[in-house]
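Lecture notes, unit on protein representations.

Consider one protein chain, 268 amino acids long.
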Amino acid sequence: MSFHRRIRNGVALFTVFALVALMAACSRPKQEIQIEFAAVYGELPLACKSTQGGAALSDLRFFVYRVEVAGRPAELVDDALWQNGELALVDLEDSTDNCVSGTMRANNIVRVIVDAEQLRGLRFVVGVPEEYNHASPLTAKGPLSFSDMHWHWRSGYKFLRAGLRQGQSQFWLHLGSARCTGSLPEPTGCQASNRVIVDLANFEVGKHKVVIDIKQLFAGVGIAEGVDDSCSSGPIEAACRIPFSRLGLDLESGDMVSDTAVFRSGQR
């Protein structure tokens, strides 16, 4: 065999090995991981049965979608109840004690499939994708089948339900898209999106959980003065200004204008 032919064969063999190595690197093994969520009041755990600083949880449920781990899209596991391949419902109330408007079923886990090396950094959106936001809970499959998470009169879903009780007074927030036009079964959309982007760059899978700070969400709403109040995401509701700003949302436009102060990483 000539010298030049041996060189060509060697180059071809090296190219094959390089392609095999590249394909092996690109086909990383995948694994299912669990992202845990928990409610807190400052640094203290908060639940329907517990009281922290005179405050108790009365509701906390929200949808999440477009989950990314380490900057790469994660696939949601479809369990036909709490999540499908695109959307999940986190439910941190269990209808006991102060959570009188909830349900007995609860879910504090979002299950996703990721590449084995994707372990640091978490990003997700609180809300429902626009293409599903106007579905009917009567015919939709889980998790969009939970009718408590739907505004029948607004033709869309409540992205987040949160409530805080202090003594005999309470404040609750129902977050969803606003200034919607049309009605079921043919809505024409909403002018204010009101979807919350959560970006936790320091989140480490297996080490951290996502904590939702109810104290941050409702700090300054006036509930301590014995006034019942609420926010239903309308731009003319003055009571919405504080919780919207804590979530990072502009009340008029419905756009994210700052990082959220409500969601953060916490030790498991």
